[in-house]
Amino acid sequence: MSKHTHAFQAEVARLLHLVTHSLYSNPDIFLRELISNASDACDKLRFEALADPSLYEDAPNLEIRVTFDKAAKTITITDNGIGMSEAEAIEHLGTIAKSGTRDFLQRLSGDQKQDAQLIGQFGVGFYSGFIVAERITVESRRAGLPPEQGVRWSSDGSGAFDTETITRAARGTSVILHLRDDASEYLNRWKLKSIIGKYSDHISLPILMPQEAWDKDKGEYVLRDEWEQVNAASALWTRPKKDISAEQYIEFYKNLSYDSEAPLAWSHNRVEGSTEYTQLLYIPAKAPFDLWNRDKRGGVKLYVKRVFIMDDAESLMPAYLRWVKGVIDSADLPLNVSRELLQESRDVKAIRDGNTRRVLSMLEDLAAKDRLPEGEAWEALSDDDKARAQEEAGRYTRFWAEFGAVLKEGLGEDMANRERIARLLRFASTRSDTPSVSLADYKARMKDGQKAIYYLTADTLAAAKNSPQLEVFRQKGIEVLLMTDRVDEWAMSFLHEFDGVPLRSVAKGAVDLGELQDEAEKKDCATSFL
Ligand SMILES: Nc1ncnc2c1ncn2[C@@H]1O[C@H](COP(=O)(O)OP(=O)(O)OP(=O)(O)O)[C@@H](O)[C@H]1O
């Protein structure tokens, strides 16, 4: 049972330094992170046990227990999930595997306040325990290994950690936080219970806490041996819509996405028919920093009958919608579905098409409500409706500023929905410096006799506006769309017309302004393009 000391990977050491040294804006999240790990560990066990049911040993009911000890100043979070072998503990708790956390480290600015906020947004998983703990001990035993092959991992969060082999009868993991003196407020049942209620209510496993009773002799509350479930423990998406409040949807989104901002919109549906599934999809308010990484598609989690299957369910969402977050729970897919199978499955294709259509209609809805109704239409609204309309106005503009450029990829990627995507596009133009002009707006104000929608691509708005190619259009009072995203030229090459009107780049040689131009002007114009 010898003890070994290991150095943390340099990146972990940096992260820990930050966690322990920065003023943390919301220390409560340590519990959310550790409960989420415990829940993941149970999901993993359930998944592995599909192939090998003996992994359940004699404890098939998966659960998470949270308790504390005032005298010892500890909080313990225990799960009976997959557990870790000694080698796994060394690897998983000593290095950072997640690319997200690495990106996070790269983005650190050195400004403590800003960086502390960033941690809040990302959540740094296990290491957030060090926000409140001066030492963390983890005791674990992997499902399937004998009790003598348990492990104790321990660290004070500076450069190194120790491991030793222990005997542990129960499968799974206990994370024991030895609290710092200034974190003793967490040695309180009510406090822990309310944090669990706030952040972890949706966790689909029971979270248990010991009950408390008044001890007359001691003159204080003491913990009893009886356990009480403190979360609702029904996966949020399985509950009927009418029983879920907006706050619960938003909190679930924050847990899912690590985004600190509320989403712009969500949509929750049970889809019935030849393929049955539940769909809960969110449109975030802010783009992630890795939006341009087309390979990264961790937004939508796939469950099969409430069993978590995989995280980066690429097959569930096309690349141009990779920023959508949410959950799909299918009743039809086999539980042991593999990545390869996912790609071939007709059910999955149906789910993906359904998701795409759903997101597009959420965006259409946001777009329709982006501007407040005017005149009589506005007057006709009740006060409640006016308030709602005011709240919803401007959301599509926000969406477009964050995600518009990625949505344009859809023109090239998703032929079936090209028309719908085209209606969602917004551009700056010779009439508007902000990207607020839709193709429909443009078409509605085309001049009599104008036969095409004109656009110009350039590196910047200033360059576009100063382009000599616009001169003739200005003279004729014809609006030109100004496009400055890198993706524009590529994307527009897929869009030849909109609602029966052809699209023309003003840069592509002589432009025929048709009846709007007399012959002499046409000649001038043609030479000016040579
Ligand atoms: N309770 C646990 N049971 C089993 N393994 C665990 C447990 N907690 C952590 N681990 C292991 O340690 C790894 C690192 O945990 P950490 O929380 O830092 O990152 P993560 O879980 O991968 O990411 P995140 O928590 O941000 O989703 C996990 O991926 C998992 O393999």
From TrEMBL:
Keywords: ATP-binding, Chaperone, Cytoplasm, Nucleotide-binding, Stress response. GO terms for molecular function: ATP binding; ATP hydrolysis activity; ATP-dependent protein folding chaperone; unfolded protein binding. It is found in: Cytoplasm. Residues 516-530 are annotated as: C. It holds the Pfam family HSP90. ATP binds at residues 33, 37, 79, 84, 98-100, 121-126, 173, 339. InterPro entries: HATPase_C_sf, HATPase_dom, Hsp90_fam, Hsp90_N, Ribosomal_Su5_D2-typ_SF. It comes from the Bacteria. Homodimer. Belongs to the heat shock protein 90 family. This is Chaperone protein HtpG. It comes from Tepidimonas thermarum. The lineage of its organism: Bacteria, Pseudomonadati, Pseudomonadota, Betaproteobacteria, Burkholderiales. The gene is htpG_2.
